Amino acid sequence: MINVKVSRRSWVCRVMARGELSGSKVAIVIMLMLLAVPVRAEDGLVSCPKVSPSNNIYSSHAVYRDSVVALEMGDAQFPVFLALYRKTDGLCVKKVVDRYPVEGSSPNVQSLFFEMIKGKENLLLIVRWEVNHRGIGTYGDFYKIYAYENDGAGWLKTNKEVGDMKSLRGIDGYQDGQSSNFDLKDAAAVRKYLRDR
User: Fold this and answer.
1) Against a cut of 0.85, is the pTM above it?
2) Which of 37, 96, 106, 129 is the most exposed, fewest CB within 10 Å of its CB?
3) CA 181, CA 178: separation in Å to the nearest integer?
4) Residue extents of the structural domains in the chain
């Protein structure tokens, strides 16, 4: 959370110390400081980002017209999050769809793509974590496929049916000392698996 009050207060103190604010200007600035509320970095009305795959910003027109999804940096506990931006009156409403936690290592989004599942367009992400628990014979990469569908109001929600499928997560490497292969590491493999089931 960004605390607007702190930055404004320190600015006012510096300006007042230099004698640049006086009388009614100080009163106006203090009133503005009292009205300031902490701003959430995640949600709100913001400038619309332009589609730029190299900056992890993708069109999500398949889910909602004039929208984009973005993979953005989070905090230490959830280093990556997925946000949906919907255009409205020249700006965008931003809403965090999901956050991806540290699971022994930071998450790496391997792929982001759209796929029709049971007649609904879904956004799918393949997320990978490095695993290194050699003491118990488990190491390699852990993969998990996330799926999101339109919630009926133009936002994205977790597709619970796909999310509950145990076959859409697994380790590629070694698990409990045994070789473990996970084949759904790219969009083509996930699409084929979902279409064939």
Assistant:
1) no
2) 37
3) 10
4) 4-35, 44-196
